[in-house]
Amino acid sequence: MSVAKLIVQNFRNLATKSISLHPELNFILGDNGSGKSSLLEAIFFIGHGKSFRTSKIEHLACYNEDVFTVSVKDNNDLQLGLSKDIRLGITNIKINGDRHTRLSDLASNIAVQIITPESFKLFFGGPKERRRFIDLGMFHVKQDFSHQWREFSRVLKQRNACIRSGTDKAILSYWSTVFCELSVKVAHVRQTYVESLIEELRVWLALLLPELVDLVNVQYLQGWPQAKELSEILDKNFEREKSYGYSLYGAHKFDVKFLLGKQVIDTQLSRGQQKLFLLALTFAQAKLISRVNRVKPILLIDDIGAELDVNSRLSLARAINHLDCQVIITAIEENVLAPFISLFEENSGSNKEDKYKMFHVKQGDVVEK
Length: 369
Ligand SMILES: Nc1ncnc2c1ncn2[C@@H]1O[C@H](COP(=O)(O)OP(=O)(O)OP(=O)(O)O)[C@@H](O)[C@H]1O
Fold this sequence. Notes:
Oligomer: single chain
CATH class of the largest domain: Alpha Beta
Helix content: 40-55%
Shape: globular
Number of domains: 2
Strand order of the largest sheet: 2-1-4-5-6-7
Number of helices: 12
CATH architecture of the largest domain: 3-Layer(aba) Sandwich
Radius of gyration: 22 Å
CATH superfamily of the largest domain: P-loop containing nucleotide triphosphate hydrolases
Strand content: 15-25%
Bound molecules: adenosine-5'-triphosphate
Distance between the termini: 24 Å
CATH topology of the largest domain: Rossmann fold
């Protein structure tokens, strides 16, 4: 889906109840503290059931309110709603008015990715963000994978429980065998996905960081040493796993390493280049998701001006022009958007409405310009 209408109630400082968005490109302008990130957070919330900037869900409710709601509608009468009652701890999920219990039901209708000025630090930091990123793509692109992943997670849980409880060796051995079989299957599906992502990444790097395309090297790490049998590794690390109390190797421990030559990207690229790299990767994933033709991806780019010079912004505008996504971009100052606006006005003839919408946020009030 792309969001034609966003409706929020008691979400952070957002006073505006309903906003009609452009299906392709939207610019949100506003001073510091006006509510730009809160607007993106509301859209992220309905796609993921959580925030991208806090793990505490109660922070999302407007001060002194217990219940907050976000709903979105597309142009084909699909309506998604998610509300939280933080006092009673109740989550309400609705799809076209019908109640659902699983967030994944909601998530299969909407694919939201976000880039903030902090994203690249998180992404190139620990493996958690990279795993989350890949998982989102897999969820939308390899739809049969969800079932396999649920099964794997169930077995991982059982195996971890056995490790922790110091259970009978025969029982642990049973769960380890199933765990190894599933790990190999999961790792294989994931590897094929990562390979297609890398291929697509090169296309977007050619637009955003052309000087680096030939130097970039991406390695998929399956979660245990590549050339070894997982069962062998588990046997060797039995005592270590016992002392940690959980599975140290397996398909859940996968990672993707981004290298420039032989060095990891974050030690080689400037902050602006890292941001462009992550944008290229996010665009690549969006492209793979849109090709499946189930949902139109939504890309949120918070504070687009941060770290990027005017040439980088122009390359970014050209790249966005090639995307089949709904894009929502925030900025503090209008002049930051100049390269985007001139490019899109050029392409849309006299009527800017064909190509984008511009909004102003002031103290939580969102007004179309
Ligand atoms: N739960 C809440 N209820 C009401 N207001 C909130 C809540 N949480 C944060 N705020 C306020 O909402 C305002 C908007 O914050 P937001 O982060 O969306 O601003 P922003 O426009 O993205 O600013 P910046 O450009 O500085 O990043 C801030 O003034 C913040 O103090």
